[in-house]
Amino acid sequence: MNDIITTACKFVTSSIGRKIIVALTGSCLLLFLVGHLAGNMTIYGGCPAQGEPSWIDAYATGLHSMPVWLLMSIRLGLLLILLIHVCFTLVLKWENYHARTHYQKEGTMKATLSSRTMVLTGIMIFCFLCWHLWQLTFNGDPHDCYNHVIAAFRNGWCSLFYIVALCCLFMHVRHGVQSVFQTFGLNTRKVRPLYNIVAVLFGVVICGAFISIPVAVLTGILH
Amino acid sequence: MANLNLTLKVWRQENAQAQGRIETYKATGIPEEASFLEMLDIVNEGLVHEGKEPIHFDHDCREGICGMCSLTINGVPHGGKHVTTCQLHMRQFKDGDTIWIEPFRAKAFPLLRDLMVDRSALDKIIAAGGFVDIRTGSAPNANNVPVRKKTADAAFDAAACIGCGACVASCKNSSAMLFTSAKAAHLNLLPQGQPEKNKRVLAMVRQMDAMGFGNCTNQYECEAACPKGITVDNIAKLNRDYMIACASEAVGVFS
User: Which of B122, B180, B126, B199 is nearest to A15 (CA)?
Assistant: First the structure.
């Protein structure tokens, strides 16, 4: 037992160990994004304006009719995963900053813009998340979800903020997805281009689909 | 053959404690076929004739195999042409160019003087586990120990690392993952390295962390800067081996 605890302590303080934890929590958050997107896409089902029952209202009501303990444990679990992801990355970033002496003339060969702005886009996503939770999760009636979303996105500034934040999410995910494969040791020269394509496709599909909602409201497709 | 006239922006610093600064020098009449180090030799000759202190820089074999030469040229270690600085020729530059020359920078590489840094942190990583304990004797007969061709090639590619430290110097986080992973993979891939694989991985990674290098963020600048073409596949392998080694240590497989 002692061996296990000692090794675990060494693992969570080592550079590779912490990277693996960041990659693990990151992958959980990526899976959450997929689930969240699947739920959001129900907004395109049924049109309350024409008297049809809205699918998203049924989905939101369904979520809220879960037992309280289950809903709260899912929420707390997600919060915990997010906090671990954020705290570990910030500590790693802090160490990285202090491991370096800066050049008078900086040069970059291969590092992508998204990889160099991970902390920035991460902070942007965090701010967006706080706003998003306040606006659409903790305020509003789940039985009237459809109209609440439409009303929120009719505001151009609000939609613009969502679109910008989701572009940040794309950049974050684009580096994150291919990074997960490398950190888990699943990368080889042969499959690296494939992982890059997977990362870009994942980002485009997920973020594109999320962005489609405010765009659809602004262009009057959803009303 | 044309001669080049260049402007050099060179980092000068008397010792580790002194305040460093960029100084500008004119390099005139540099032959195109000169190597980068030979260009600095010409500039230094001029400085010595003027009674000034020459620019101090590391160099040894000048054949691209010893890993002693360093220099960050225009923000890129070894100039980013997939060769060491000693093999970088002045034909890569144009007449009238301004070239920034700085040392390999990282907290784990303390500066000694001008462009010389102490890279012994890398030696300490090797000393922690980059070896095989058993007596290997003289070279064995070919095919005495069967090794798959692909494995032998991968191990040889990893062993090509000359330990110059360009990976650390180019990394945005000053991480030594490419170096450590190449040195570990070189032995971990081969049958002779198997008995001590887990021990080696744990010792080398822990030593690397203790030396104050940063953490890898998978940006692959190291791979682009490496004069020996070491790939980041080695880093993926080290991550994999580290997970296995930790699990083995936790359950006491080799304690």
Answer: B180
For chain B, the C-alpha Rg in angstroms (whole number) is 21
For residue A170, the distance in angstroms to the closest alpha carbon of chain B comes to: 17
d(CA A124, CA B72): 34
Residue A41 Cα, gap to closest chain B Cα (Å): 33
Q: Could you give the CA distance from residue A148 to residue A194 in angstroms, rounded to a whole number?
A: 40
| pTM summary value | 0.93
Are the C-beta atoms of residues B190 and B131 closer than 8 Å to each other? no
The contacts of residue A186 (CB under 8 Å, 6+ apart) are B236, B240
Buried b (16+ CB within 10 A) or exposed e, B216-255: bbbbbbbbbbbbbebbbbbbbbbbbbbbebbebbbeeeee
| A204 alpha-carbon distance from chain centroid | 13
Q: Show the tokens assigned to B253.
A: 């497989």
Interface test with B, best of A94, A100, A102 (most B CBs within 10 A): A100
ipTM: 0.91
Location of structure tokens 């050049």: A103
- The pLDDT tens digits for A64-76 are 888 999 999 999 9
Strand segments, DSSP code E, in chain B are 3-12, 21-31, 72-73, 76-77, 98-102, 111-113, 116-117
CA–CA separation, B30 and B38 (whole Å): 9
For residue A67, how many other CB atoms are within 10 A of its CB?
A: 8
Asked if B248 has any chain A CB less than 8 Å from its own CB, the reply is: no
CA distance A166 to B151: 43
Q: Which amino acid is at A193?
A: P
Is 70 exceeded by the pLDDT of residue A19? yes
B18 touches chain A (CB under 8 A): no
**CA distance to partner chain B, nearest, from residue A136 (Å):** 34
Residues in chain B within 8 Å Cβ distance of A14: 205-206, 209, 242
Residue B62 has pLDDT above 70, yes or no: yes
Chain A hits for B11, CB-CB cut-off 8 Å, are 104
CA B122 to each of CA A94, B93, B162, B229, B240: distance values in angstroms, whole numbers, following the listed order: 22, 31, 11, 18, 21
Interface of A with B in 89-108 (CB under 8 A): 92, 95-96, 98-108
